[in-house]
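Before the break, one more example. Copy the sequence into your notebook; we will annotate it together after we see the structure.
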Amino acid sequence: MENRNNVTEFVLLGLTQNPQVKILLFAVFLIIYIFTMVGNSLIVITVTGSKSLNSPMYFFLAFLSFIDANYSSVFVPKMMLDMLHEKATISFQACMVQIFLGHLFGGAEVFLLTFMAYDRYVAICKPLYYLVIMRWRVCVLLVVVSWIGGFMHSLLQLLFIVGLPFCGPNIIDHFTCDIFPLLKLSCTDTYIIGISVVANGGAMCTIIFSLLVISYGVILHTLKTQSLESRQKALSTCISHITVVVFYFVPCIFMYVRPVCTFPIDKSLTVFYTTITPLLNPLIYTLRNTEMKNAMRKLWNRKSNVQQ
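Here is what the structure looks like once it is written out:
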């Protein structure tokens, strides 16, 4: 039985089996998804179309919004579509694609958030060397490294799963294809693979999150020696980034730094970092950033004048 794969599709139990609740959740997630796409697209358009937002920080922010929009699109449209059907299914191939794309964009975001923290560290702790260190060639290279890192992480995760035999049952108690539920369905011993998944995903999130906490500790310590105006401006930027880092890394660490098993709270955490976090990121960065709000206002006024 271990050499056979009789499963061609998986049945997703989703968030609920209640038809009325499904319709309500569909409406809620549709609104969230629309605001997510509009908010992140607005940031990308504003950064690329505004001459005042030409610093590395906004360059990274535009790519973060691009990743968030794609990351949410991997999961939310499929989840909403399943809510309109009595029985939700996903083919084996589509399940593997969803795992690959989810970890691709998720891994790229992990590395990009790290480089954004490095950008803030250089800007605050080494301001005289900022333009030399964070020149445009370096910024482009860091974005490329983010995508390469996300691709390598995603490829490893996929290789752990794609070769496993699935003989049945094929029911996943989740709204998306995830690694741990699939490991439970495999008809072979997956203990070593589970440890490898934890080492690849969980260890990466934990190490990077620890480094980010240390770096922001150094940044906050450095701010003590700066003027009140510089301190307030730097704190506003850092608090926004720290908030995004906590929202993204804490659920990730809980999901992958643990024994290979599933918990009832897994669905809620997955909803949070695949649906809510991509929505919150543009709100966090725009509501606390005066330059971004002014650039959006100027871009909107320029568009209105052109239409008139």
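The longest helix spans residues 92-125. The mean pLDDT is 86. Try to locate both features in your own notes.
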